[in-house]
Amino acid sequence: MSNIQTLLSAFDAIAKNPKKQLDDYISQGKKAIGCFPYYVPEELVYASGMVPFGVWGKTGGKINLAKEYFAAFYCTIAQLNLEMGLDGTLDGLSGVIAPSICDTLRPFTQNFRVACPDIPFMFLAHPQNRKKEYGVKFTEQQYNKIKIKLEEISGIKITNDNLNEAIKIYNENRKARRRFIELAGQYPHIITATSRSVVLKSAFFMLKDEHTKMLNELNGLIEASPIEPWKGKKVVTSGIVLDSPSLLKIFDDNQLAIVADDMAHESRAIRVDVQENTNHPMQALAEQFGNQDYDTLLYDPELNKRPGYLVEKVKKSQADGVVIMIMQFCDPEEIEFPSLKKGLEEAGIPYIKIGMDQQMTNFGQAQTSLQAFADVLSTL
Length: 380
Ligand code: SF4
Hints:
Blueprint: H1 2-16, H2 18-27, E1 32-35, H3 42-47, E2 51-54, H4 76-86, E3 95-99, H5 105-115, E4 121-124, H6 133-154, H7 160-186, H8 193-202, H9 208-223, E5 233-239, H10 245-253, E6 256-263, H11 281-290, H12 306-317, E7 321-327, H13 331-346, E8 351-356, H14 364-379
Parallel strand pairs: 1-2, 1-3, 3-4, 5-6, 5-7, 7-8
Helix pairs in contact: 1-8, 1-9, 4-5, 6-11, 7-9, 12-13
The protein binds iron/sulfur cluster (SF4).
């Protein structure tokens, strides 16, 4: 148990202080590239010998300087990413990759480019039709543009060999994270909602081979532990980001174990692997994006498949209910909420909707709601 706690403390320290992690990499002579949400092909950055560094807003952050560029009704992830560019937090980065996959990120990319001219900027457009051959080709072209800029910044050529190696390392990390998520669901008495979050969050700030090594060790230790009956209730979370320690403590205080998730920052980011050892690794990366599904940010020609996916996740993980985290001013998630609600109600699955933003530090209302939800679940 003490080894598990030692590893969890190490993940916690990294998740809580990404700036220190960035500074450590830079002091080792490495260059780092900021990867904004969503679906950045980090493998390209890794293959160029640089550190892909996740930038997903800042939990508990304050928006001051970014107010000059955004109206108040933009989500806090975008505003805080710009704030960190303006206040110098991102100064150590040798560049950023900025996707434009939602209506907030599109203006964000242009605001960032203008407001932070000293940080080399790589714009990434994903196609709406990602699965068809022409969509895969478009993605591949976009990735090739990023590749050229990364090579300029790093001075290292991205070859098929080093890209295939990066893909292998990323697949291994995705596998380890998926296994950890399963284990967290089976061992909630060991992996709390809070510790589950720091393990998954720290991956965005670490070289993936380093993260995999630590995580495989942790997974092995958890697997070797006895399973104990869980006295609380089990939930699936859905939304964009859930990494606030104060909010996660409410889950833990009310014995709500997170046994699976549909969070953009967690499972959605690691669902799909990339084909390994091909002669066309760039195409394989583009196909991986084409194979992504069940995400409100991605066009779904077969009508909305996400409610059914979420219901299946609840059944498979034997969860008692769903906690839907809605990021304030996130239009895609708000728009999709009614269909999620309908799907869950038809399947008879209890759910609760919690509104949040990244500036929040006081979660009194969420505490009352989650406490009531835990009470309701225990009466069923
Ligand atoms: S939280 Fe919603 S609105 Fe904001 S960047 Fe993500 S998807 Fe776009």
